Amino acid sequence: QSFKHLLLWVRCMVSPDAWARGGWACRYVYRVAWAYSGGNPKAAAALVPDFQRAFEHMCIHSGGKAVIDTVAKLLGFAPAVVEPARATLHRFGNTSSSLVFYELAYFEAKRRVRAGDRLWMLAFGTGFKACSVVWRALRDSGPDADNPWNGCAHRYPAALP
């Protein structure tokens, strides 16, 4: 239950207009979403911004299959959005919050990032912690010589458990 509240807070923090309305608005939206999620999940879902329109790529913390599934469900991500997280978990296991950088390397190995694209990294820590950063690509990506996906990126996406 606290994980759901954390994701509600994240939704509010990255909402495009939350900063313009000030800190009180963010706290208000969180409280409303929390109240609705207890009795009416559909009402709480109406407060979820469309992150797939805000960012071209997303690297979400892939601490386990349950984490990926919950994040995808609560934030409304399509299966293609969580593909890098699943592939990273499959290939490297749970390496804590550094997984988001393995996901970035996955995007680079697949040559998916173009100049101007926005990439959102979202990682979770112990307890009630979340770290979020947005990057803007300065140039088209390609795999570096030391990319951890070199030689194996072509095997993904695969039918992952």
- Classify the helix fraction into a percent range: 40-55%
Radius of gyration: 16 Å
CATH 2nd-level architecture of the largest domain: 3-Layer(aba) Sandwich
Shape: globular
CATH topology name of the largest domain, in short, is: Peroxisomal Thiolase, Chain A, domain 1
Task: Report what the structure shows.
There is one protein chain. By secondary structure, the chain is mainly alpha-helical. The protein has two domains: 48 residues; 112 residues, Thiolase/Chalcone synthase (Peroxisomal Thiolase, Chain A, domain 1), CATH 3.40.47. The chain is built from eight helices and three strands. A hairpin with a 5-residue loop joins β2 and β3. The chain starts with a helix and ends in a 25-residue tail after the last strand. The relative contact order is 0.15. About 3% of the residues have low confidence.
Features:
161 residues, mainly alpha, Peroxisomal Thiolase, Chain A, domain 1, 2 domains, three-stranded mixed sheet, 3 strands, 48% helix, globular, transferase, Beta-ketoacyl-[acyl-carrier-protein] synthase III C-terminal domain-containing protein, signal
Give a short synopsis of this structure.
The protein has 161 residues and is mainly α. 48% of the residues lie in helices and 11% in strands. The longest helix is centred in the first third of the chain and has 17 residues, at 23-39.
